[in-house]
Design a protein that fits this description.
The protein contains no helices and 5 strands. The protein is an all-beta fold.
Length: 71
């Protein structure tokens, strides 16, 4: 009796955020984005947050983001 098992991996996001402005990456590891883009927060630092957007990860300036509070 062979049964397949499905493992669902849920990413460990700290929250969600939305871009307040456009941003063009200037260094490796940064992520370019457009205003109103939606992101999953992976890490929070004072000035830079590591986020995921459309399968890409990178750092974005935290002052360009508005954190969304999910109920």
């Amino acid at each position: 009796d062979k049964r397949s098992s499905l493992t669902i991996v849920t990413p460990n996001y700290l929250g969600k955020c939305v871009a307040l402005y456009d941003f063009e990456a200037t260094k490796e590891g940064q992520l370019s984005f457009k205003k109103d883009g939606q992101f999953n927060i992976l890490e929070r630092n004072d000035q830079w947050w590591k986020v995921e957007h459309n399968g890409n990860t990178g750092y974005v300036p935290s002052n360009y983001m508005r954190e969304e509070h999910v109920i």
